[in-house]
Every structure is written in C-alpha cells, then in structure tokens.
Amino acid sequence: MALTIKYLLRYKRFLLLNLIGAFGFIVIELGIPTLLAQGISNNFDGRNPAYMTTLAVKMLICAVVGLILLLIMAYAIDRVTSLIVRDIRNDLFTHIQRFSADDYERFGVSRLITNTGNDAYMIMQFLTLILRTGFIAPLMLTSAFVLIFRQNVPLALISIGMTPIIFIAVYFINKRVHRLSAKQQKGLDNINQNMRENLTGLRVIRAFNKESFQTTRFASLNTTYRHISDEMYQKLAFISPIFSVVFCTILVLVINLGSLYISRGELSVGSLSGFIEYIFHALFSFLMLGNVLILYPRFEVSTSRIQEIFNTTPTILENPDGVQSNEHIGHLAFDHVSFSYGDGSEERVLDDISFTAEPGQVIAFIGSTGSGKSTLARLIPRLFDVSQGKILIDGVDVRDYQLQALRKKISYVPQKATLFAGTIRENLLFGDQSATDEDLASAVEIAQAKAFIDSLPEKYDTVLAEGGSNLSGGQKQRLCIARALVKKAPIYLFDDSFSALDYKTDANLRRRLNQELATTTMIIVAQRISTIRNADKIIVLNEGQIVGTGTHRELLITNAVYQEIAKSQLTEEELAI
Ligand SMILES: Nc1ncnc2c1ncn2[C@@H]1O[C@H](COP(=O)(O)OP(=O)(O)OP(=O)(O)O)[C@@H](O)[C@H]1O
Ligand SMILES: [Mg+2]
C-alpha cells in the first residue's frame, strides 16, 4: 500500500478533483431521496401542484449537478490511474535495467515481465476502484447511518446490528483469497515462462518432434492456473450473496417493524420510505466497499511482488564517486582473480587468474568447454564482480569506475550473438549513436559483412526480426562484430565471436582487425587454434585455472593441454611448425 500511496501523492491535483467529484455525488445521491421523502410526507394527496413542481425542479438540478461532478470524477480517476501505472512501469524498467545477470536469474525474466504487465495492471484496476469508491462509500455510509438514526432509532439499531456479520465473513474469505492470489500470480509467471521458451525454442521443438509434449506441458500449467483461479473465484462468489442475505433480512425486519410503528402512528409513511431509501444507499455503499475488499488481496499480492523488485539492490552497484574519465589507453590486468557464480559459496569457476594485456597486443584464451573463458570475459565490463582479487583497466580497479565510464572502454562481442528487432542500421548505431554512414561502412567492411548487407534488397534498412532470427548464425556474428567496431573502444573482447565463420572469412576478418585495431588491446576467446595462432600471447585455461601461457610455438612444445587441443585440430604438417 505504501508503494501506491507514494505514487498517488505525486498527483495531488487529480486527487483533489476526485474528492470534489465524490463530495458532490454524496450530497446529490442522498439529497434526491431526502427531497422525495419530504414530497411524499408533505404532499402525498397531490393537493399542492406548485410544491411538487418546485420539488421536481430541485431534484432535476441535483441530478444534473451530480452528473457533472461524476464526469469530473471519472476524468480525474482515468488520468491519475493511467499516470501512476505509467510511472510504476517506467520505474520498474529503470530499476530492472540496473540488475546484474545474477539478479535476472534470481527472479527470472518471465516474472519480471508479469510484474511490469499484469501486476502493474492489477494496481491500476484496484486504484480505479478505490478512487471511485474510497471517498464515496465511507462518507455515504456514514451519512446514511446518521440519516437512518435521525429517522428512527430502534430501526437503525436493528439495521446496524446486522452488519458485523458481513465484515467477519469477508475477513475469513479474504484470508484464503490472499493465499490463492499469490499462487495465481506465480501460475501466471509459469505460463509466461513456458510461452517464452516455447516461442524462442520453436525450431528445436519442431526438430525434436516435441510439439505435443510442449502442448501437454502448457495445458497442464494452464489447468493448474485455472484450478487456482476457480478456487479463488468460488471463495469470492460467497461475498455477494452474504451481502444480499444480510440486507434482505434487514429490509424484512425494517418493513415489518416499520408498518407496526405506522399503525401505531409513531412513524409516517414518508419517513419509512426515506428510511428504506437510506438503507438501500447504505447497501450500495457496502457493495462498493465489498468490491474493494474483494480486489484487495490480489492488489496486495501484486504490490508486494513489485515492491520486492524495488527493494532488490542490484548486485553490481554503480560507484557514483568513481572515476568518470581517464586516459583511454587500454591497459588491462587481472590480479589474482577468483570467481564463483551465485552468492560466492559455489565452486570456483575461475581460480587465481593473473595476466596483463597491453595496447597493440592480441591476447587469446583457449580451453575446453566450461573452462571459464566466457566467465573471464564477463568480469571485465563488470557483468559480474570478481569474488577475489582485482581487475585493473588503465591502472584503476574496474569497481572504482562509474559503470558508464568503464563500459566506454570496452567493445564486447558476446558468445551468443544478440541483435534487436529493428533495422541493420539501428543495430549498428547501438555501438555509437553519433556514428556517420562512413563509420558504419568501415565497420561493416572490417567485419566482413559488406557483401551480405549489399546483397539485401533494403541493405542497411533491412528490418531484423526479434533476435535477428532472419539472419544466418555467421551473419549475426558479423553484425555483432561490426556493432562493436562502431563503438571504437580501447579494449576489444571477442568471446568466441568467430566460431560461426568459415575459415576464409575468419582469416580475412582477423587480418583486417589486426590492421585496423593495431593500437588497441584485443582479447580473443576461441575454440579454433587457427583463429589464435598468431596472437601475441595465448593463455590456456583448464577448469578455471591458467595452465599455460606463451606463443603458439612455445605452447606447442611445452604445454600438454595445448598440444592435445592442437593435435585434434591441426595436421601433422601444421603441428611440425
Ligand atoms: N550464469 C551462470 N550461473 C552459474 N554457473 C554458470 C553460469 N554461466 C556459466 N556457469 C558455469 O561456469 C563454468 C564456466 O562457464 P563458461 O561459460 O565461462 O565456460 P566457457 O569456457 O566459456 O565454455 P564454452 O567454451 O563452452 O563457451 C561452467 O561450469 C558453467 O556451468
Ligand atoms: Mg564460452
């Protein structure tokens, strides 16, 4: 609730407008029955038509003013709720944007999507309801009770005496609903996750003939969700009848007792009809409050889910007092770096890694799959933080930079080629928004992507599907390389970025990179010896440890792990060199 109040207070103007609308509504809603009761009492036989006309005009004015005020209220509610949901979504997005890979993994992408979509929408629904009824219902209820007491005390006591039944029933129902609502939202997360996986893995699913398996899995999640929803709505369905039963009982008692009072001359017909009218207003306010109570547990669950995200401090913290800019030299040093994923208690993925890379050097990493090469690359731009030791760039610990400043120094091509929906040009400009057409053309030429872009009918304006799925693996890789080249940073990180290229393209690309990036620091992670054999320094990783450092020639002679990799890839002739 505190979260919602914080956002509500941003729009005090609209809240005031809402309050004005609500007050007018109450006066008029209760004003008309008061006028009606007066009319019935004073002029029941119709002998004073002038009085009736004045009364009718008064009632009409009440109705028109009421309508105008209602419109003002509706406008205020629409504005304030849509603005608040926009703010919540924007703030969530900005906050999530700062999450590290670890944080994403903890919550799961699907959950974060449900938070920004469904949970935020639930808050909007509840706010609309509470603003529509939050002021009106309690005020109307109080005024109705005051008027009821003024009409007849015994009747009023009977009516009010019955209401605790409703509160007790709603309290117990809502306790159950709260639990079910939490399960329901979790169920929605699962459905979203399954849907996402299904859509992104469509090709694999088809190739493995797993459509029916996936359909069954989805249907089962969907059924679980339906069961939870059914159970929840069944519980909620009790609330309305309880209201009706209690109010019908009140009405029966009031009419019976009221007629007795009338026959004894202790109550007028007008007063009884006014009383019944007020009872209906009280009922109406109760029903409005009932709707708020029905929605409240679900709102509470959605709010706490969103609050949990806001309460999560990203594990990679910005260093606001950090270095904003220093000289872009490109000197990189790992100083006894160790790392493990998660909270640091798991097995070490990198163990005591130390090396340096100077501008103009090509440093290559090779090692079997799972040896920690990608992990090592991810530590440099602080996608994860080291568990022990430190990484220095241009003499400064990466944690002592402001994140923007640090990442400006690094052009990173991740192992998994990631492109965005949009044109090729837009994707390339991701590297640097201010890049000119010549800059793009040069990057594309170096990345060996010119020929294939030129062959496309729309060239740079070719629209890429989500994730670049309308390109081949090698084309995607080349665009990712070009994007990194557009960024022009002093340190380049290529994480297995040449794996989907044929030997010739790979060779051409490396030749052009060596020419163009002669003064930068290049870190290349590769599986193929041919890709790295000319590197200034090759570092062999095995199970997170450095087991060899040297040039291709040196390692061929001295390093058993390297020899093994080399034997599996090179011919006898090549090995002999
Ligand atoms: N996000 C993660 N959370 C937990 N463990 C991870 C994560 N990413 C990788 N690992 C584990 O860390 C180890 C090193 O993985 P890494 O991706 O660095 O290997 P790699 O050398 O790049 O392998 P490959 O050549 O297959 O790309 C592996 O055992 C892997 O299971
Ligand atoms: Mg890897």
TrEMBL record:
Gene3D superfamilies: ABC transporter type 1, transmembrane domain, P-loop containing nucleotide triphosphate hydrolases. Keywords: ATP-binding, Cell membrane, Membrane, Nucleotide-binding, Transmembrane, Transmembrane helix, Transport. The keyword Transmembrane applies. Pfam families: ABC_membrane, ABC_tran. It is found in: Cell membrane. The keyword Transmembrane helix applies. One of its GO terms (molecular function) is ATP hydrolysis activity. This is Multidrug ABC transporter ATP-binding protein. It comes from Pseudolactococcus paracarnosus.
